[in-house]
Model the fold of this input.
Amino acid sequence: MKTRTKNIFIAALVVALLFSTATCTTIKSTAYENERALTDTLRYYTNALGLQTTSIRTLQADKTQLKQLVLNKDKALATLAKGFSKVHSVTKYNTVTVVDTINVRYTDTVPCAFQRERVVKNAWYGFKYRSDQNGISIDSLTLPNTAVVITGTKRKWFLGKETLVTEVTNTNPYLRTTQLTAAEIPQPVPVYKKWYLWLAVGITGGFVLAK
Done:
């Protein structure tokens, strides 16, 4: 009986050691990947559709790390995240829409010769134009924008039902998101992170020691 008890105790310790090793390995791997993500730069490539894709490594963070590494450094982003009871992912990116030249020719010419040129520029758009009796030419039209995409759960009230949503916010008031498709694949919780497994190991170890 003593030998059996001893074997059970040893087995419980081995299981606990294996799970501890797996946890340590995962933490070290995640920390390494996060270091690479924080120093990563944008990459551009042509995808299977023939369109340009921008790529960057993704930071893997828990709630505390997300606040320390991202939200505390961006007040606007932190304000948007406060609207969620749980944040699953955050993406922020900058774009500049550029249109080289737009020519509009008048169908009826103005019966006098004139020419006007001007540069228009503010926080949300900029362009140059040239107008004469034949038409108008708009050159170097630019529309800068910062977009924030947050996926997470929201509640209408403290104990209300959680709803998984994805929200896109554009800083440029002249840009509007007209269609949005969002999907999330739930990630399974690793076995070594499940509380009831550690509870079982603890109970088994305590039972063996009591014997």
Observations:
- The longest strand covers residues 86-105.
- The CA atoms of residues 116 and 131 lie 5 Å apart.
